[in-house]
Amino acid sequence: MAIMRPFWPTRHSSVFGELDRMRRDMDRLFGDLPDRSFRQPMAGVFPLTNVTEDTNNYYIRAELPGMKGDELDISVTGEGLSISGERKIPEQKKEASYHRREREAGRFSRMLSLPGQVDTGKVEASCANGILTIVLPKAEAAKPRQISVKAV
Amino acid sequence: MTASEAKALEAKEKQEMSTDVEQTRLGTTFTPTVDIFETDTGITLLADMPGVKAKDLDLDLQKNVLTIKGDVASPEGPNETDVLREYSTGAYVRQFSLSDAIDQSKIDAELKDGVLKLVMPKAEKAVPRKIAVKTG
After folding, report:
1. Mutate which of A52, A83, A88, A133 to test chain B, going by most B C-beta atoms within 10 A?
2. What is the model's pTM?
């Protein structure tokens, strides 16, 4: 008779079953946090991006300080978008000595997929104060439609 | 360096400010990333403050402490709901202590595309001070 629950997986609790149970436990632990939006996994790809939607449009915003609109390469397909470019920071003269050097330069490229179809012909992008804003009008099929209930 | 040799940028989370100063307003405050370099003629400070407009930028110099502060209004419209949120927005605050070598009356500030540039020229001549020692 088994007095203790075996530590190692037995045929009753496979390794996968055990992993599944752990995953569910973790979900339960973290699932109750009040603000889920800030826990969303970060893609870890530059630039960090916020995507929002309202009835008619999707909005994509990214912080790109020091960049101008014409330095960005944005292309859009029906359900996806790519942003690429290079952030340049002018090199200083040799005799300049740095006290702090936290800002970074380099190239980047990011793909984003949208939750629904967009009208690619009407996408507009603007860059102001170091913030890129892309407005993507939803395709007719992706817009929510009000359904009226007929009285019989 | 050509474009193909340029290194790839990595995403970095914005640094939330950790300070002893109590905040009197709601919202998150971030520490802007800065470059500070010195040449023979002066010190230049560059700070990334995306979303800050010139009218919302506040520069304050008191007792050799320079405070840069920028307020950011939420860019989102009232009916927008989140699909993906990777960064949050809020004010930027950072303080620097300046040395006496800087001519504080000649500091020049410029805000362009979300980058603040402060040019702080050194004083024409650091006034030599001689301390006479009295003999009793």
Report:
1. A52
2. 0.73
